[in-house]
């Protein structure tokens, strides 16, 4: 674990990997073991990503459950962690922890330049030193919870499902006493089971879709026996703790003064339309929402990589069957290529590394690459089944009222978005963004981007295309940074010494 | 959920808040029943942790004088001075410190 306050000297490596979750960690380790020098840049102080989030390794004695709190594939992480520290000790991997890449430059004929800023606090090094040069690049930046606005979702006590999980995985803190977990997809099960294990009373898990959707793709589900076993484990926890699991049920409103105190749930039909008379109010001080995931694409979109819309309607990076993107020397792995889970991410990270090794004219084991490619194709088939079983309901915008806040940062409500499209003739999400200003605040549309695009498409009749989605993902400065860092750049975009 | 080290304590708007070493500022506040710590610029609404992983910027705090730090990704340290000051409050003008 490196200390983000220690300066980073300017480095030149064969391969830079952005993100140290399952995909990036696998890529960095495998690339190093096959002869490349690697820089692994990661926002967290320690490797593992969101999936293997765990308490600070320097203080494990302080925690009731050291390291693993309900993690799947934990031994695999331990193995990767051991191999990473071996590679770091041997000088083959430079682990730049606690740093975020805010820009990747691609000077003609020169290596990629990755500019970094500390995730938290200040960095002792000068901006000019916070750069890594790399001949090749693996983008493994992962994903975060996809959100849909609903009345009351800005109240404290309402959190992204993944955030609730991150809080108990890494900090062993639960965000409330009585919880409702709502949205769609198998991830809700994991969050609810984790909360129950931590002693929280889970009063309802509201899954918007019917489980019968899984039955429509039985072959896809059986492709991944490991996933089925995980499901059986959750079912056992749900039975033991008597957690009510309600399908075709949504949260239509969160109520409370100053923080969440209750939710209103309702039954919906197959399209997501509320069935009148089915509303119920449940007391809850914690509401966890998850509607699938949004891949983190700032660097990918800014590099101009080809994208596509995945089965879950997310914008993802287009890769070939060896994890190459449309830009030579750039590879993508993990959730950025389509949400598929940790096992899939590890395989993609490993394959991206082997492809980079081969492209660098070093020797990569070809049979291992072929095996990984087969494994990834199988995982993708499973993911397609999962996405088809857990779609965002077509009629979700019916749940939004005119005064429902859509953009949390700039506090833009649904009426303002509708008025911008129908009254001011804004006809794509970018128009709406610059006119009504949703997505123009701190998070730059990371949270509301999906909803804004969807609402715009609905009001304008525009199709759901990558051309519509990309403008909302375009953030030339990938993460907020100090103005002084920008001030030190000269007009050609180089860092002034 | 876990034993609290009584020596580890930060200050939140001047009030001591204990935490377990390795926790984030956001986790320390939540563990002590503090669920919101800033208000929004337009409507003055309370906000605390939302995404929990550094994406949404709802949980901003001032840490040892550094504004706009994300409580969810900033590690807690003993003696840290955490303030709920609204990030939209204008910075004082140079030389205006005495006013």
TrEMBL record, chain A:
The keyword Hydrolase does not apply. Gene3D superfamilies: BFD-like [2Fe-2S]-binding domain, FAD/NAD(P)-binding domain, NAD(P)-binding Rossmann-like Domain. The keyword Oxidoreductase applies. GO terms for molecular function: oxidoreductase activity. Keywords: Oxidoreductase, Pyruvate. It holds the Pfam family Pyr_redox_2. This is Pyruvate/2-oxoglutarate dehydrogenase complex dihydrolipoamide dehydrogenase (E3) component. The lineage of its organism: Bacteria, Bacillati, Actinomycetota, Actinomycetes, Micrococcales.
From TrEMBL, chain B:
The keyword Amino-acid biosynthesis does not apply. Keywords: Oxidoreductase. GO terms for molecular function: iron-sulfur cluster binding; oxidoreductase activity. The keyword Oxidoreductase applies. InterPro entries: 2Fe-2S-bd_N, 2Fe-2S_ferredoxin-like_sf. Gene3D superfamilies: 2Fe-2S iron-sulphur cluster binding domain, sarcosine oxidase, alpha subunit, N-terminal domain (3.10.20.440). It holds the Pfam family Fer2_4. Residues 73-99 are annotated as: Disordered. This is 2Fe-2S iron-sulfur cluster protein. It comes from Diaminobutyricimonas aerilata.
């Amino acid at each position: 674990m490196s200390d983000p306050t220690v300066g980073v000297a300017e480095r030149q490596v064969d391969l830079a990997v952005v993100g140290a979750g399952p995909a990036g960690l696998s890529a960095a380790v495998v690339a190093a073991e096959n002869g490349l020098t690697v820089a692994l840049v990661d926002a967290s102080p320690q490797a593992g990503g969101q999936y293997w989030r765990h308490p600070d390794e320097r203080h494990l004695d302080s925690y009731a459950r050291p390291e693993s709190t309900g993690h799947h594939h934990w031994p695999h992480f331990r193995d990767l962690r051991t191999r990473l520290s071996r590679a770091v000790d041997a000088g083959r991997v430079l682990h730049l922890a606690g740093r975020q890449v805010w820009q990747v430059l691609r000077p003609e004929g020169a290596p990629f330049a990755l500019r970094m800023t500390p995730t938290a606090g200040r960095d002792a090094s000068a901006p000019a030193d916070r750069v890594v040069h790399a001949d090749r690049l693996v983008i493994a930046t992962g994903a975060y919870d996809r959100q849909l606005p609903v009345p009351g979702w800005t109240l404290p006590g309402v959190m992204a499902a993944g955030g609730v999980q991150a809080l108990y995985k890494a900090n062993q803190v639960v965000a409330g006493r009585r919880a409702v977990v709502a949205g769609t997809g198998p991830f809700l099960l994991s969050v609810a089971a984790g909360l129950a294990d931590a002693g929280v009373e889970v009063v309802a898990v509201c899954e918007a879709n019917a489980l019968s959707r899984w039955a429509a793709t039985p072959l896809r589900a059986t492709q991944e026996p490991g996933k089925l076993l995980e499901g059986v484990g959750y079912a056992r926890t749900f039975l033991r703790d008597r957690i009510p699991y309600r399908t075709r049920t949504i949260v239509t409103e969160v109520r409370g003064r100053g923080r969440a105190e209750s939710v209103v749930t309702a039954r919906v039909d197959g399209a997501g339309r509320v069935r009148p008379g089915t509303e119920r109010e449940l007391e809850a001080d914690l509401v966890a929402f998850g509607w699938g995931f949004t891949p983190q694409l700032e660097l990918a979109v800014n590099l101009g990589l080809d994208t596509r819309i995945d089965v879950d309607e997310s914008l993802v990076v287009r890769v070939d069957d060896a994890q190459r993107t449309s830009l030579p020397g750039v590879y993508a792995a993990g959730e950025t290529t389509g949400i598929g889970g940790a096992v899939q991410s590890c395989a993609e990270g490993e394959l991206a590394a082997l492809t980079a090794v081969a492209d660098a004219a070093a020797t990569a084991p070809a049979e291992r690459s072929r095996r990984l490619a087969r494994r990834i194709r199988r995982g993708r088939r499973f993911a397609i089944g999962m996405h088809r079983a857990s779609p965002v309901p077509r009629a979700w915008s019916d749940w939004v009222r005119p005064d429902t806040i859509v953009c949390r940062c700039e506090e833009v409500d649904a009426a303002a978005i509708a008025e911008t499209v129908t009254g001011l003739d804004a006809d794509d999400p970018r128009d709406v963004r610059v006119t009504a200003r949703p997505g123009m605040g701190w998070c730059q549309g990371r949270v509301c981007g999906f909803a804004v695009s969807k609402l715009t498409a609905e009001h304008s009749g525009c199709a759901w295309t990558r051309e519509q989605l990309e403008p909302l993902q375009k953030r030339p400065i990938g993460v907020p940074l100090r103005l002084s860092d920008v001030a030190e750049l000269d007009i050609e975009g180089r860092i002034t010494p | 959920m876990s034993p609290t080290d009584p020596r580890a304590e930060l200050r939140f708007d001047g009030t001591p808040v204990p935490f377990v070493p390795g926790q984030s500022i956001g986790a320390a506040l939540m563990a002590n029943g503090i669920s919101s710590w800033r208000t929004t610029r337009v409507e003055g609404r309370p906000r605390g942790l939302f995404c929990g992983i550094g994406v949404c910027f709802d949980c901003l705090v001032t840490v040892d004088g550094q504004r706009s730090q994300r409580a969810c990704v900033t590690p807690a340290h003993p003696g840290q001075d955490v303030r709920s000051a609204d990030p939209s409050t204008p910075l004082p003008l140079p030389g205006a410190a005495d006013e």
